[in-house]
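Model it.
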Amino acid sequence: MTPSARVQAAVDILDQVVGAAMRQGAPADRLVAEWFRTRRFAGSKDRRAIRELVYRAIRACGPVPENGRAAMLRLVQTDGSLAELFDGIAHGPAPIAIEEEPAQGGVAPRWIAERLAASDIAGEEAAALLDRAPLDLRVNALKADGATLDLPEPAERLPAPHGLRLPGGTQIEQWPAYLDGLIEVQDCGSQLACEAVGARAGETVIDLCAGAGGKTLALAAAMANQGTLVAADTDRGRLSRLAPRAERAGAEIAETLLLDPGREMEKLEPWLGRADCVLVDAPCSGTGTWRRNPEARWRSSEGELARLAALQARLLDLAAALTRPGGRAIYVTCSLLDEEGAGQADAFLARAPGWCAEALDLPLGRPRGNGIRLSPLHDQTDGFFIARLAKPC
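Modeled.
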């Protein structure tokens, strides 16, 4: 493919990404993969160059662009060398007309940028949300020792006890260590959230929003497969991926519960007041994960944020009911918005008599309200809020 044909291919993919974002369709990585799957003529260098253009254009735009061409024209504003590729030759994009308007720049749509600023995420802090993320791994302590693990490429050790870091884009899917369950892909911040749980052998631990089980597997390793670990979620598709992952990792999950949204307690009732710890890795806006999913900025809305905030509060109340006297609940969101983080913890403590926030001893993070906050700028992790909440005896 010619360089100009690659630009037009990126524009075509961006059209799909913009449309999917507005109707809550497939994520960008899936759309990119599908485009390549149906166009075998694109070689490996073409695919790499096109993918690079797509994600550079997504990061260059703030609000949702009108279309893929507008997004690419915004990238032209930051990289003038691309302008000459709008030549209209063969499969290249048509020349740029004087009256054409590029998409707007910025960190995010205005409403969410303002919410971030109100949570002290602005300037360099906000810009870092769109940096490229590295590839973080967690060594599975059930099967391997990070000190002796042999990987095909050298990895940087992380502050998380079992964490390793590789350059973003490193292909590990065929590494024997990955196929045999010796390593798992998990951001350093997510690993530290699991450290905050403090899960120990012999405890009863409930992962209330287990999803596909990334944190569940880390908890199983922390417990050395000794105790009772329950994984619960309302998403059948994501939860179904836990079993094969657990088998590969050698992790023992006592019970996997598919919950009905709004009727979660019907399945959870046997665990009322029995858990030593409940992890609430709550659904959220995902502002802390934009480095990996930059088009997620275009999928949020004020109405959706309000719905998520109400759900987060309800999940905290569920966790409180499941926790035994003297036990603890760990509240985690991959968001940097106070209304999903520190504000939620404050509101819970205000309505839960006797509960208190416990100090967290983590190697990264800064105090935020009754918890800590991890950010890409200061900690080189995804953005997280973490609070450890203790129930009175």
